[in-house]
């Protein structure tokens, strides 16, 4: 286990924990209960997909402020039989009634950050069940037993969950009584490390298993999926969404999600999008995610020597931040759920060597405060560039768990698993936060708000339209060497997910740090990009850097023109990783000490 602090002789002084090493199986996640669950499954003979699924359902119970059954999922995986990286697209689409005209008629100029009107079709649970049927080996009841037990017996309220519940207590009491009854049964928000139970969700999981009948394991899981997609879960979610309730607009609206919308959703396995960096293939989800941002930045950085991109120096921070600004501007201008032919054309241009060279040449000695998408032969979309924070109205906000400084330690969950056979998965589940919309009392969870990432502008590539996926921030990563998987990694953090993963990749692939050293090193990110979350603000030239980077580094960055905010010494990111050497079978794992929740385990 990685829970014990190493002695001074066990690890260099700039790391907090050792990088774990073994040959049987490794798991790492944003919560120790999920890591322990996944490792337990491996120890009992399950494979990486059994383990990841079991851990993911535990995350619903342990981190309900960061993900939920009503949310979404993106994963990148490879199997022992087929090492080609593929993306599990568990991001639900917009419901049939989610039209720009409907929102405009409701008096809205944006998709609210909280409330069922912002709900995409829940994709996480159906996708996990699909993965289990396709690649797992365990029975559904055995996989879900861990989450059922924690939901019934309770989990400790981590400090961040306690802060979120305190933040939304008045909203729940005044406007969302079902949420108040579920999450505050003592008549108040629970404090840190009090026990929190969710018997309603335990009953939901038990019922999925009960209704999951059939002659074979796969048939039983398919039947459970039907109970979710077309049965009791779909009916309850539709009834709840139809009841008008307070949104972050400050007004009451009914959602548009119906049972038919859940039946429309089908998980899909798609080829990953890839790019090369320092001899390693980096695999990501496509333009319906923000994953290509990381690929774009890496192709730019191939035009710089290692010393120019070292994030332990002011020059390296500057280079990486400027590259990120350019790629993130392209994200706003060109990314979205495009038609396949259009997506292929856009990706080919964005990831071409010539375009990378053009973009790298735009990185100068001084910080840019401009919004600078590139020229790919199509008109770029320019979103509203809002620099002042809108007031937060009654009804909550999109993500009260995350701030641009990173001080609140995340908005999402993450889980990585690799087994002794070579199956590997990096998964980022999110959405369906308890603060998203009113709890559905008979199910024990809420709908998500992923549609807030869409624009009510028909010209936007990430526009709202029925059947289209919102452009998600969820962005797990798989690494391959000579076509064989060698690592799975990711982090929560909204718009910062690929920024913090970039630091890890530069430190390990270019500078030779170990996984735990790379995770522990001081982090930073740019805020010079329109946020994916309501109220969609940005800070031109903004750069947030951990205090441990040093006053000298912060001062030099200010002298270059960066608008620097110094955050807490251990405030940014919750990255985790597992690795496998395909030649020797050596496995490694590391997890982030920030937030005191993430742990790696294995042997």
Jot down its keywords:
alpha+beta, about 600 residues, 21 strands
Q: Rough shape?
A: globular
Major beta sheet summary:
7 strands, antiparallel
Largest sheet strand order: 1-20-19-15-14-11-10
Rg computed from alpha carbons, rounded to a whole number of angstroms: 22 Å
What is the strand content?
A: 15-25%
Question: How many beta-strand segments?
Answer: 21
**How far is the N terminus from the C terminus?**
8 Å
Uncertain residue segments: 1-13, 388-410
Structural class: alpha+beta
Count of alpha/pi helices: 18
Mean pLDDT reading: 93
Structure description:
The model is unreliable at 1-13 and 388-410 (pLDDT under 50). The chain has 18 helices and 21 strands. The N and C termini lie close together (8 Å). The chain has helices at 32-43, 48-62, 100-105, 124-135, 140-153, 159-174, 177-183, 199-211, 217-229, 232-241, 259-264, 291-301, 314-334, 340-350, 353-360, 497-510, 515-520, 551-559; strands at 20-22, 25-29, 72-78, 86-90, 155-156, 195-196, 245-246, 252-253, 268-271, 273-277, 280-284, 415-419, 424-430, 477-481, 484-490, 524-526, 542-546, 563-567, 576-580, 587-591, 599-602. The chain is an alpha+beta fold and 603 residues long. It is globular. 34% of the residues lie in helices and 15% in strands. The relative contact order is 0.20. The strands form 5 sheets. Strands 1-20-19-15-14-11-10 form a 7-stranded antiparallel sheet. Strands 9-4-3-13-12-2-21 form a 7-stranded antiparallel sheet, with helices on one face.
């Amino acid at each position: 286990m990685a829970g014990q602090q190493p002695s001074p002789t066990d690890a260099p002084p700039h790391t907090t924990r050792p990088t774990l090493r073994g040959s049987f199986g490794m798991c790492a996640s944003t919560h120790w209960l999920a890591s322990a669950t996944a490792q337990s499954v491996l120890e009992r003979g399950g494979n990486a997909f059994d383990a990841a699924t079991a851990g993911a359902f535990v995350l619903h119970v342990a981190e309900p402020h960061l993900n939920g059954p009503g949310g979404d999922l993106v994963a990148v995986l490879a199997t022992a039989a087929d090492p080609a990286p593929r993306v599990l697209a568990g991001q639900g689409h917009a419901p049939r009634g989610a039209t720009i005209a409907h929102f405009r008629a409701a008096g809205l100029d944006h998709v609210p950050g909280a409330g069922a009107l912002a709900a995409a079709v829940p994709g996480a649970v159906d996708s996990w069940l699909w993965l289990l049927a396709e690649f797992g080996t365990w029975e559904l009841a055995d996989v879900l037993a861990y989450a059922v037990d924690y939901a019934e017996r309770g989990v400790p309220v981590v400090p961040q969950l306690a802060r979120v519940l305190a933040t939304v207590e008045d909203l729940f009491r005044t406007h969302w009584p079902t949420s108040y009854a579920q999450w505050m049964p003592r008549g108040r928000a629970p404090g840190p490390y009090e026990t929190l139970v969710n018997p309603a969700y335990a009953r939901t999981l038990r019922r999925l298993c009960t209704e999951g009948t059939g002659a074979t394991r796969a048939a039983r899981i398919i039947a459970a999926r039907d109970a979710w997609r077309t049965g009791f879960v779909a009916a309850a979610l539709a009834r709840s969404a139809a009841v008008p309730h307070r949104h972050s607009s400050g007004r009451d609206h009914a959602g548009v999600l119906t049972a038919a919308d859940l039946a429309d959703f089908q998980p899909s396995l798609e080829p990953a999008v890839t790019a090369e960096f320092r001899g390693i293939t980096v695999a990501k989800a496509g333009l319906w995610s923000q994953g290509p941002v990381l690929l774009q930045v890496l192709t730019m950085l191939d035009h710089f020597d290692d010393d120019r991109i070292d994030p332990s120096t002011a020059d390296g921070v500057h280079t990486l931040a400027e590259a990120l600004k350019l790629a993130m501007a392209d994200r706003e201008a060109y990314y979205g759920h495009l038609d396949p032919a259009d997506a292929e054309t856009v990706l080919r241009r964005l990831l071409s060597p010539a375009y990378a060279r053009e973009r790298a040449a735009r990185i100068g000695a001084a910080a840019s405060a401009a919004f600078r998408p590139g020229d790919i032969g199509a008109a770029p979309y320019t979103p509203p560039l809002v620099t002042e924070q809108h007031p937060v109205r009654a009804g909550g906000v999109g993500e009260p768990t995350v701030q641009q400084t990173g001080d609140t330690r995340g908005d999402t969950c993450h889980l990585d698993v690799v087994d002794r056979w070579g199956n590997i998965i990096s998964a980022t589940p999110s959405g369906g936060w308890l603060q998203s919309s009113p709890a559905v009392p008979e199910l024990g969870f809420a709908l998500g708000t992923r549609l807030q990432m869409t624009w009510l502008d028909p010209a936007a590539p990430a526009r709202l339209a029925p059947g289209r996926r919102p452009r998600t921030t969820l962005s797990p990563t798989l690494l391959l060497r000579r076509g064989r998987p060698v690592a799975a990694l990711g982090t929560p953090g909204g718009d910062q997910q690929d920024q913090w993963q970039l630091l890890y990749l530069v430190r390990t692939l270019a500078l030779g740090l170990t996984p735990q050293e790379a995770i522990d090193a001081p982090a930073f990110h740019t805020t010079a990009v329109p946020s994916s979350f309501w109220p969609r603000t940005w800070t031109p030239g903004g750069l947030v850097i951990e205090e441990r980077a040093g006053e000298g580094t912060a001062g030099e960055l200010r002298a270059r023109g960066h608008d620097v905010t110094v955050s807490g010494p251990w405030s940014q990111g919750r990255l985790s990783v597992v690795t496998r050497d395909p030649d020797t079978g050596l496995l490694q794992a590391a997890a982030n000490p920030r937030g005191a929740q993430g742990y790696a385990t294995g042997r």
